[in-house]
Amino acid sequence: MLLQTLAESVQATGLSQTLRASLWLYPMVNTGHVVGIALLFGAIVPLDLRLLGAWRGVPVEHLARPLVTVAVCGLTLALLTGSLLFATRPEDYVVEPLFGLKLSLLAAAIANALLLRRSRHWPRGGATARAAGVLSIVLWLSVITAGRLIGYR
What we know:
The chain contains seven helices and no strands. By secondary structure, it is mainly α. It has one domain.
């Protein structure tokens, strides 16, 4: 009930109405969301592949420095634009099971990344880092898939 009331409030805002009515604003926000996802996933996959054993001659730290920065920028852009996309139809999204699944997967993917970065296994690799790399790829692909499926409902 509280979620539904909040969704109704968001949908009644001027921002929500502007996003729905604008010929160009919604497509620009949607494009920004896709760019954010591309930056995030495009940076995460090479780093995960390195954790899985690719490019063994390149230290993880050397790849991580630029790729984590790009991934964080992509995640930030995706979260900001995703919030704006949510604002266009919040009443529909709060009752959509795939939306809840997407948010849960997103939280798990972010938690996996944060836990790995704080882990002593991060730079050395090993079984824990490999498992985190596989889990990362699976989680981020699942987030993207759930998001695309929402778009087709």
